[in-house]
Amino acid sequence: MHPQLNSEHQHEGCAELMGILKDCHAENPLMRYLGVCNDKKLVLNKCFRAEVRPSHCQREQNALPTALLVPSPDLQRIERGKKNMEEARAKRGELEKKWKEIEQES
Question: What is 57-69 written as a DSSP string?
Answer without folding.
Answer: HHHHHHSPPGGGS
